[in-house]
Amino acid sequence: MLNPWGLFLCQLAINTSYHVIKASLCLGGSDIFATVSENRPVGEFIANLSIVGDPTGVNSIRLCLTGENANWFYLEGRTIRLNSSVLRVLDRERQGSVLMAALTCYEDDIIQSEHRVMVEILNENDNKPTFFEKTIQPRYISELTAVNSLVFTVKAIDADGDTIAYIIDRASPDASYFRIDLPNSGKVILDKPLDYETKTQLQLVIYAVETNTKEWYNTSVSLTVNVKDGDDQYPQFLPCIPISQDHNHTVVCTNAIYAVNITEKDQDMLLNFSPGPIHAEDGDRSLDTPLLYSILSGADKNRFQIDKQTAEITLTRRVENRHLTPIFRLRIMAFQLNDPKKYSVATALVRVLAENRFPPVFNRTTYKGFIIESSSPATLVSTYGNGVLLIQAIDQDFVDPTLATTGLYHITEEGVIIAKTDRLRPFDRHILEVVARDEESGEVAKASVDIELLQRSQPIPQTPFRDMDVRIAGGIMGGMLLLLVTTLFLLIRWAKRRRRQRRNPAGRGAVALGKHLKVVSAAPCTRNTHTVSTHMNLTHTQGQLKRA
């Protein structure tokens, strides 16, 4: 029989053995190290626990997950699984590369053990490259940038950490202007010269491509490159006369020749050139660099002076003898104020002419013409009596007229009008205006030509009275006779008065002196070597005039 002390020791041993056995249920555990790929579905296995006790048994233990990333896991018995969902996907790029938590084992709400849970998230290629926004903004490059120069750099990043190469899409509109020598650098090199005057804006497409993955994910961006104008063009006199055009539609032109006419009496005057005014512009239109002007040659000891800013040329003194110097040839230079080496030269001609004395005149103000219907492509226009119609412009300052054409009619140098008969219809009536112009003084004379197209069987009238009846013709003849009698009566009265004046002694004295009371001395006439031009305008057309 045990004494009380022995009984106490026995009970103590039993209790101690019970707690040791119970505490051993949390034993056997350890830190957990595992891996899981990103984007895995819910319930993905993470690890099994090595704890002795079963949290689902009768004398159960209690397991608890705590820590920063504990919500990404849940316990299923002694198994840890991934706690993800359709709306909550494990993403290494957002959650980081490691998930950390703590596993605590409780017995009777007393912590018996605690272990670390560390799960590495394995990367999957689930991202495309993206460009840094600041590297793909519109660029501005001077047209003077040297070929093979670095013009800009693009940069992209891949969230999966993949290696990226950069490629220019050669199908983009202006890909030929650029290249990338080192694909992984993103450095874009200028491959051919820029020209602001040809093209002011370039477009190209650049790809960022993964090179170390089987998917080869890529992304593209469209870049705009604006070409800035550089000071590479010389001044250009206006108007520009095109002489050629290349495949880039760049027009090559030559300077106009400016011309003006003066007389021997002219001096101290501004010269108005044609085409005018004399003016040049910087070839780099967007820069519009200020220009200055000077006369390189032909100024004739300052007879001609030019305004440096406006290019206005002044004649300072008259020409003494136009036969000795009938023409002056001025060489005018326009150069940039900031760079005199950039210049252009034009020619200005000053012709010295005799003074214009007479305006042009036609020998008639109205002409009447007829055409017989014909299938011939061209026919001479006739007048009354079947004679050839002649248009004559006279100017005593001119030598020969210069004539022009219209769509249906052509006038020769002799004043003969040729009609394009195959383009006319019977009974057509055309009213033409013929203009003779003094090309140097600007004076003009005008006449009209009334042309009718007759049928094949219809004769050309012999006189202007072909359509008048006898009574009208008789009335006209009577009026003309009355006018003739009146004229004769006035002439007789004038002759009688003239005889009385000759008996006047003052008149006889004047005759003795070799003068006439009604005559003033006149300067001799001289002939200019000007040119006159005559042209025709079709001002009115009346078709289908029926005849009786």
TrEMBL record:
Protein name: Cadherin domain-containing protein
SMART domains in the cross-refs: CA
Organism per entry: Hucho hucho
PANTHER family for the chain: CADHERIN-23, CADHERIN-RELATED FAMILY MEMBER 5-LIKE ISOFORM X1
Molecular-function annotations in GO: beta-catenin binding; cadherin binding; calcium ion binding
Compartments in which it is found: Membrane
Keyword tags: Calcium, Membrane, Repeat, Transmembrane, Transmembrane helix
Superkingdom of source: Eukaryota
Entry-linked InterPro entries: Cadherin (IPR039808), Cadherin-like_dom (IPR002126), Cadherin-like_sf (IPR015919)
Bilayer-spanning residue ranges: 472-492
Lineage: Eukaryota, Metazoa, Chordata, Craniata, Vertebrata
